[in-house]
């Protein structure tokens, strides 16, 4: 099928057997379907569309659900899409993505594609299935600035693109740059992931003030992973797997315990007050809790029952400290829950049916 193809609604509504939560299955196609990575919005701010990737055409393509009709619209038709790179604009006009070694956006109304940058003959992403190998990108809250990590030989370049003028600038070169995110309130700041032993970094959009936000306790083999900004603050919330969630003030260096359970991909809502997290080893479902402190009550929203592939997570410390790790962790088997802009829903992915599908649960 070509881009612009409109598919009938595939929505199926049901109640979670154990919690009673109302769940809506968005996709129902026997192939890989998944929403964007957990800290990247799956909706535009007005919630007119819910964006996802589907392999139903034989290659990953960007789709959206038109929420008024529940029909599905195909937005791309490419052979080179980097499927975890997609980032919808907040105003609902575009979806940004990388394909091959270039940066693009598609107009969701006209379907016109525009190339914003060509990075040349480079691998673009690192090898593997996790971290920087996923090729995630980040769009500022004002939709003006788009930051894209580019693997070029032995170095990774952090490229910031002005979406109005098309100008782009390399603000940093490093060994590895992964999972970048603009600050939700101030697009002059970004955070990004470095190597496992020095994971969380912050940097200004112009490339200045690049610094490590948290020094892990190597003696405890801390595994610091899956971070996100907290809106309204300069705090970064991150998993200290599997011991809970830390809150790290990136300006003062103050560290607090925000949760004390096996939160795997913890995500905070747009108000900065509530979090949701999937869980693993054991899988106790999607956990929903307020940010009042590590002992704040939490409740189980639903049970995605995803396969959560990736046995390197079955540990109480960072496995990379023990030497090379053979990682098999297909990301479409992870729930990666995230909030809707209005805070009424969470979107997640599960392969409980035998194929990964996109779901939305009422909170």
Order of helices and strands: EEEEEEEEEEEEEEEEEEEEEEEEEEEEEE
What kind of oligomer do you see?
single chain
Number of strands: 30
Strand order of the largest sheet: 1-7-6-5-4
Distance between the termini: 35 Å
Uncertain regions spanning at least 5 consecutive residues: none
Main sheet characteristics: 5 strands, antiparallel
Question: In what range is the share of β-strand residues?
Answer: 35-45%
Task: Give your account of this protein's structure.
With 363 residues, the protein is an all-beta fold. Helices cover 0% and strands 40% of the residues. It contains no helices and 30 strands. The strands form seven sheets. Strands 1-7-6-5-4 form a five-stranded antiparallel sheet, with no helix packed on it. Strands 2-3-30-29-28 form a five-stranded antiparallel sheet, with no helix packed on it. The protein has a four-stranded antiparallel sheet with strand order 8-9-10-11, with no helix packed on it. β9 and β10 (102-107) form a beta hairpin. It is globular.
In short:
The protein is 0% helix and 40% strand. By secondary structure, the protein is an all-beta fold.
Give a topology summary.
Layout: E1 6-7, E2 12-15, E3 22-25, E4 33-34, E5 49-54, E6 61-66, E7 72-74, E8 87-88, E9 94-99, E10 102-107, E11 113-118, E12 138-139, E13 145-152, E14 155-162, E15 168-174, E16 178-182, E17 189-193, E18 200-204, E19 211-212, E20 223-229, E21 235-241, E22 244-249, E23 255-259, E24 263-268, E25 274-279, E26 287-290, E27 298-300, E28 338-339, E29 345-350, E30 357-362
Antiparallel strand pairs: 1-7, 2-3, 3-30, 4-5, 5-6, 6-7, 8-9, 9-10, 10-11, 12-13, 13-14, 14-15, 16-17, 17-18, 18-19, 20-21, 21-22, 22-23, 24-25, 25-26, 26-27, 28-29, 29-30
């Amino acid at each position: 099928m070509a881009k612009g193809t409109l598919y009938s609604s595939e929505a199926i509504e049901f109640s979670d057997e154990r919690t009673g939560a109302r769940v809506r299955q968005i996709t129902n196609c026997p192939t890989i379907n998944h929403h964007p990575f957990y800290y990247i919005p799956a909706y535009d701010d007005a919630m007119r569309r819910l964006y996802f990737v589907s392999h139903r055409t034989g290659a990953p393509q960007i789709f959206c659900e038109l929420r008024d009709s529940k029909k599905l619209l195909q937005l791309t038709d490419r052979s080179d899409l980097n499927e975890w790179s997609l980032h919808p604009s907040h105003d609902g006009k575009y979806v940004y993505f990388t394909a091959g070694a270039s940066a693009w956006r598609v107009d969701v109304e006209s379907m016109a594609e525009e190339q914003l940058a060509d990075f040349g003959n480079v691998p673009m992403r690192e090898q593997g299935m996790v971290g920087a190998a996923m090729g995630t990108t980040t769009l500022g809250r004002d939709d003006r600035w788009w930051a894209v990590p580019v693997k070029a030989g032995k170095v990774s370049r952090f490229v910031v693109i002005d979406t109005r003028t098309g100008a782009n600038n390399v603000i940093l070169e490093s060994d590895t740059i992964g999972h970048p995110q603009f600050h939700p309130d101030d697009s002059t700041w970004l955070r990004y992931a470095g190597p496992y032993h020095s994971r969380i970094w912050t940097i200004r959009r112009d490339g200045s003030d690049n610094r490590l936000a948290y020094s892990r306790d190597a003696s405890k083999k801390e595994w610091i992973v899956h971070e996100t900004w907290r809106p309204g603050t300069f705090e970064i919330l991150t998993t200290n797997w599997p011991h809970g969630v830390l809150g790290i003030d990136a300006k003062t260096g103050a560290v607090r315990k925000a949760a004390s359970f096996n939160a795997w991909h913890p995500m905070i809502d747009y108000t900065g007050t509530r979090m949701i997290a999937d869980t693993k080893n054991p899988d106790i479902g999607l956990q929903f809790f307020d940010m009042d402190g590590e002992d704040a009550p939490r409740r189980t929203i639903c049970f995605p029952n995803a396969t959560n592939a990736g046995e390197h997570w079955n540990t109480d410390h960072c496995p990379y400290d023990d030497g090379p790790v053979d990682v098999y962790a297909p990301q479409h088997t992870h729930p990666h829950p995230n909030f809707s802009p209005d805070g009424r829903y969470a979107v997640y992915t599960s392969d409980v049916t035998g194929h990964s599908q996109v779901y939305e649960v009422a909170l």
